[in-house]
Amino acid sequence: MCRLPGLVVFDLDYTLWPFWVDTHVDPPFQRDRAGSVLDARGRPVHLYPEVPAVLERLQGLGVPMAAASRTGETRGATQLLELFGVRRFLCCVEIYPGGKSAHFHRLQQDTGVPFAQMLFFDDEERNIRDVSKLGVTCVLVPDGMTQALLTRGLEAFARS
């Protein structure tokens, strides 16, 4: 696998974490004394288990990463990226309602990376459909981001 993407982009809800930040949890979020992330009602929230290893693997390969989310709960999503330690891996973050195509046009503008050099992971078919029309290599995430899905995505990108 010699050809790597110029940018890997992740959706957030049901891709990096197992909930919708705007409906299933209650912002604001905080860390407790043990280091767990809790919502406003004191319920623990977490990333999918393999997400930290996925991010570290891409960082080790020197591949820049970004996030693109359609959620209206921009503050809560941004806060979770910080509390989970994900934000430090990301060069760009696009979090606002609307079609994912707009997010990708902004990412291309901000990074200079052409769509054909991007790899995108998302749990929603509609987003995969819309973004793939731009020429981005897209991978559907059925049950959270995993190392196996990352490998599959990198292989698909290398073949594209």
Task: Describe the protein in words.
The structure is a single chain. The protein has 160 residues and is an alpha/beta fold. It has 5 helices and 8 strands, in the order E-E-E-E-H-E-H-E-H-E-H-E-H. It has helices spanning 51-61, 74-83, 100-111, 125-132, 147-159; strands spanning 7-10, 30-31, 37-38, 44-45, 65-69, 90-95, 118-122, 137-140. The strands form 2 sheets. A 5-stranded parallel β-sheet has the order 6-5-1-7-8, sandwiched between helices. A 3-stranded antiparallel β-sheet has the order 2-3-4, with no helix packed on it. The relative contact order is 0.22.
What distinguishing features does this structure have?
8 strands; 19% strand; alpha/beta; 160 residues; five-stranded parallel beta sheet
State the helicity in percent bands.
25-40%
Mean pLDDT: 96
Sheet of most strands: 5 strands, parallel
Q: Give the oligomeric state of the chains in this entry, treating copies of one chain as homo and distinct chains as hetero.
A: single chain
Question: Order of strands across the biggest sheet?
Answer: 6-5-1-7-8
